[in-house]
Amino acid sequence: MRLLTQFWTLLTYCNQGSGKVLNWALLAVIFTLEMLSIYLSIQLIKWTAGFYNAVEQRNLDETLHQLTIFGMIVAGNVGIYLIEFYAKGWLEIRWRERLTNAALTAWLSNKAYWFLSLKSESEKPDNPDQRIAEDCAMFVTHTLSEGIELITRIIGLFSYVIVLWGLATFALEFKLFGYDISIPRYMVWAPFAYVFLSSLITHLFGRRLKETFVEQQKREADFRFGMAHMRQNAAEIAIMSGEQSEREQLDQKFLAVCNNRFRLLRRQVQLGLFTRPYYSTILRIPMFLALPGYFAGAVNFGGLMQLGSASQQVATTLSWFIFSYRKLAELVSAISRLSNFIEKAKAAGAENNISTEMSATTALSLSDVTLHTPDAQQLLQIPELSIEAGTVVWLRGASGLGKTTLLRLIAGAWKSATGKIFRPAASSLFLSQKPYLPNSSLKASICYPASPAGVYDSQITDALTKTGLSKLIPANLEILDSTPMPRGLSGGEMQRFALARALINKPEWLFLDEATSALDCASEVQLLDMLRQELPATTLVMLSHREPGNLKPDAIINLEIFHSHQQAMTAPTVQPV
């Protein structure tokens, strides 16, 4: 029941938003074409009797006529296949677009991607990138192929059984333990009994495939992530000559991939011990079962071929579960992984013990705030703290005190806390000690997190020049939009780039978390003075354990008095300068 609920929820995501009418129209076209395909299959069954009877009677004219009918049926099937192939592909793209959008929304909303990363390994979904990229595609592809096929086969089964019922009018008679046994219309019941028994055996051999597919996806993703992680930290690894250590870790991850792949291979071979012989015989068994009626004179040769063809259609339609077992195992594993990921992402984004409200004034205020680590260790306890707009404030404290965590709380990126925050209705920008450089162009990177649209090239060059990064400016400004973000920047250059980002965004509140720690004293003084001149109305909040340059703050707040080890928890007064 839970699996069906998860499947329906994911299917709902595929049809949400605009364009639902077109999705349903494409589904209607696909099912209409499937019905036409069933109709042509029935015509092919009827054609079988006419063709083989004409061949048996050596009637050349009738044989040629039947070949013409056969050509028309084949042409119709080709047209139906191509149109349906395009319609399915179109619908698959639309479904995947919407499902991927739902997964990305769950992952990015309320900073769920960040809060998930803080959880323990057992609490967070593995490899969100793979869940979104691969499982969304797998769910849509297998749902369309197997779901539509299941529905059309159920509809087609009734049509084929009606045809078979009209042909299989004779009974199977034999003796068993001295008793006379007669099974009327046995050709109708035989495919059901044969396929039912075969389906049970198939599930017996393949029931553990789902868990093995899930584990294979996880180990493949771990291996890819290991290589991506090495690429992202290539400079540090090269400096430390850590190639051997990295190789050992990659070898371990790849060994896990191979070991589980062998396990998957063995289980697929076990399943194949039954399914491969079944595939090879399913088209012949119905014909063999019809031979007693032919030898008894109940049907002629053309009728035998027609009866065999009808029985084959019934048997192959009933065999959908067997033919699709491997894909169904993959689909079930994708449903389980993707649903688990979306559920955990939504839960992580919804969790919140801290109350955030819009400030009635222009000040940023904290009231009765207690800050914890994810494992519930207390960091800071702040009865009252207020920062006025337009001022320069230095939040002072030793390394490891919890300054960065406090900044994350103010930014809305920390939930292991209680209390209230009153935020002003103003734009803000947070610059950390190690700036983030997105995988995009130079212009998009310097405008981040804002859009580069509407930002003039002259603003970019001016910001880079004032922060001492004029070497990044391309000779031809017309290619600024397409110039990739340079890699291999030093720590100081990355911090300069982040300050240039502040000049572009012009936030009303700017938070600097050790944002100049990689610069020498002279450069720090120069850049902070320039920043204050360029953004005179911006509220500047600096977090550091040493005084930032010669920029004189309006107030100094010592976070040591808020630390959980302090005994006095009365609200402090801000130290004026």
Radius of gyration using CA atoms only: 35 Å
Strands, count? 12
Q: Strand count, sense and closure of the main sheet?
A: 6 strands, mixed
Overall pLDDT: 82
User: Which parts are unreliable, with pLDDT below 50 for 5 consecutive residues or more?
Assistant: 565-577
Structural class: alpha/beta
Shape: elongated
**Helical content band:** 55-70%
Instruction: Provide the spatial order of strands within the biggest beta sheet.
Output: 8-9-10-6-11-12
Count of helical regions? 18
What's the helix-strand series?
HHHHHEEHHHHHHHHEEEEHEEHHHEHEEE
Estimated share of beta-strand residues: 5-15%
Report, as a whole number of angstroms, the end-to-end distance. 66 Å
